[in-house]
Amino acid sequence: MYLQKRRFGRTDLWVSVVGFGGMWLHHFPLPTSPALTMKEARMVVRRAFELGINYFDTASSYGDSEEKIGAALEDVRDECIIATKTSSRTGKESLTDVEASLRRLKTNRLDIIQLHSIDTIEMLKKATGPDGPLKTCKKARSKGMVDYIGITGHRPRVLAEAIKTGEFDAVLVPINIVTRQALEELIPLAKELDVGVAVMKPFAAKTSEVVTWGYTPSLSLISEEPELKALLGEDKKTMIRNALRFVLAQDVSVVVPGLKSVGEVEAAVRVGEEFEGVTEEEKKRFDVQLGADYCRDCGFCLPCSEGLDIPAILRFYDLSTKYGLRKWAKKLYQGLSVRVNGCTECGECEPKCPYRLPIVKLLQGVKVDFAE
After folding, report:
1. HSE-CB for 282 with a 13 A CA cutoff
2. What's phi and psi for 78, nearest 5 deg?
3. Are 325 and 319 in contact (CB under 8 A)?
4. pLDDT by residue (tens digit) across 272-281?
């Protein structure tokens, strides 16, 4: 079989519909995620390439992920599309990042350099300002060190403002069966502006400033939670398949799951090879009526004077009331350090919400739904 490719916006690059996310090549402080040796990592990355994956996403902040990908792909570099990221917030620091990434990836150019985790309008303004990393990335592009410039983040509304500037050729954003905010505004806008869309976190319910891999209880969609099994399937293989198929059914170019074993690579590639659109049964499975009063997780309501993570609270409330994931959502909610009982109903958040949500009323609903 053949892993399909899709056009990546105005870059005119053709990317495999399933890409390789390099985050998990690096060791993170989780007992379930031991570090891969260089030999193991090279084997995983190389298997991805052999099966038709040509889009490899990493970052300067992912430990030794760049070195591992660079070592695995050095002799086939020109057959791959390598996207990395700079987390630096000044021009001088980001230039150092670009130069270091080139060395680690064993290449003389980057296909795509991305500004990493731009999650607020203030961060966007600084990043695109006179001393921001965008200016340096453009300079690197003019010198042939970089072909295209992208941006990543977890808040679609901020990313929508970013691509309106015309400065970005690509965007990396979370989308999955319970994280759909990007589908409302960002994805149609990216299509209109011919910006390439890559999707991260197809298997985790991303919300607000919560760190997905470090949050307890787990935000993973691939779990033993009975409600998630009812949504995605009874076994891990089926859950992964359905989660990826949901993303591939959207108007995006590539889904980039974090992969750390040959088995995971083979399973993900198989989904990409077989995908020809969703079935009627899947349309029913994937259909959720969100209405107008769901939280888009833009974060504009923050900060809260009482320390509430309002977007996270409302996202968990939506998981309960709109997706029917009541028990799981309540567990996630109880993992928050400040819950809705801390709300004084001051109403300061409501004028800041661009969607005019009745936040105080919704928080009262949270009290009832989660028996606070």
Report:
1. 17
2. -75, -10
3. yes
4. 999 999 999 9
